[in-house]
Amino acid sequence: MIQNIYLKYLAIFLIGSSVLSTACQSTGTAEVENDETDQQEALSEDNRFLNEPLVTDIYTADPSAHVFNGRIYIYPSHDIESGIPMNDDGSHFDMKDYHVFSMDSIGGEITDHGVALDIKDIPWAGRQLWAPDAAYKDGTYYLYFPVKDKNDVFRIGVATSQSPTGPFKPEEQPIAKSFSIDPAVYKDTDGQYYMYFGGIWGGQLQRWATGEYKPEDVYPADNEPALMPKVARMSDDMLGFSEEVRDVQILDENGEPLLAGDNERRFFEAAWVHRYNGKYYLSYSTGDTHNIAYATGDSPYGPFTYQGVILKPVLGWTNHHSIVEVDGKWYLFYHDTELSEGQTHLRNIKVTELTHRPDGTIETIDAYYE
Ligand code: FUB
Q1: pLDDT exceeds cutoff 50 at 276
Q2: Which class does domain 51-369 fall in?
Q3: Can you give the residue ranges of every domain in the chain?
Q4: Of all atoms in ligand 1, which is nearest to the CA of residue 79?
Q5: Residue 2: its pLDDT value, please?
Q6: Hey, what's the torsion of the CAs at 188, 189, 191, 192, to 10 degrees?
Q7: Which atom of ligand 1 sits closest to the CA of residue 128?
Q8: Within 10 Å of residue 169's Cβ, how many Cβ atoms?
Q9: Which of 48, 174, 178, 335 is least enclosed, having the fewest CB within 10 Å?
Q10: 294, 362, 296: which is closest to 331 by C-alpha?
């Protein structure tokens, strides 16, 4: 997950130059000290963050926001200092529990409801509780979460509660036929629920290209279609899939799949779906180019056609978001690393308004202001 040289380019970005995205390739740890110096300088020169952290006493990331019974609930990752050195598999993201937060309105006081699920209570879990999501159906709240199993393979689990804030009781086994990371569960207007998931690199999606797990990291060539996020309709009991997992196609303006070498636009992780004016919007992180991008389509299964960038790179390496409507306005929940002054694995959640233009396109958000 981490590519240290990004910090150097981030400093350039902060003082007004463009991010050199194609240069964001890992060169190991030799440049860390210089990179950190650059970032400190960038931070001290001009603190121009568009929004403030919502939570300041613990580190939080990957915010999945929902409105349940008129209240806003946020289901984030809970970042901690793991002491594990950074690597491209994201081993330093070694999270152990989830907290749920709530607010009665955007800008209102935020409540931390404490630990909602602890890794020690998940019978099949090994390590690394990554980005979760939640859903509600028929009186039960469902928390969906990715975690490595005891063989170090990411799977997606589910836990249930009668309360949106938990505590959540995990099922004994991961969701059958689930794999990789970043579950996002979307409820369609007809009452059907769909789970989108997947993430490359540390998220292991590339290991499932054949439909079975292979421990080698094999990626498509640059001129081949990129790895796509996955989708499956949820079963009535919300504890599993009711169909085979499918690819979600993301197409370019010519109707061709985005290519693996199209790092500026192709899917990396953090899929999210919302519906606006009858269109389905699939948004996601482009990972090593650090955007939240989006594509639109006419069905929850896609295909989706690439449209543009919702959120430009933030302070930190990862970019991960959710989009939710609250009282007729749309909001983007996201994270950056303002509180930890740029430490990639110590993030903080934020929220900002999102605007759909009359033609349905979304205004690009810059997480810094001029
Ligand atoms: O928080 C751990 C991982 O970092 C998430 O699962 C990814 O989406 C990235 O934000």
Answers
A1: yes
A2: mainly beta
A3: 51-369
A4: 1
A5: 34
A6: -30
A7: 2
A8: 13
A9: 48
A10: 362
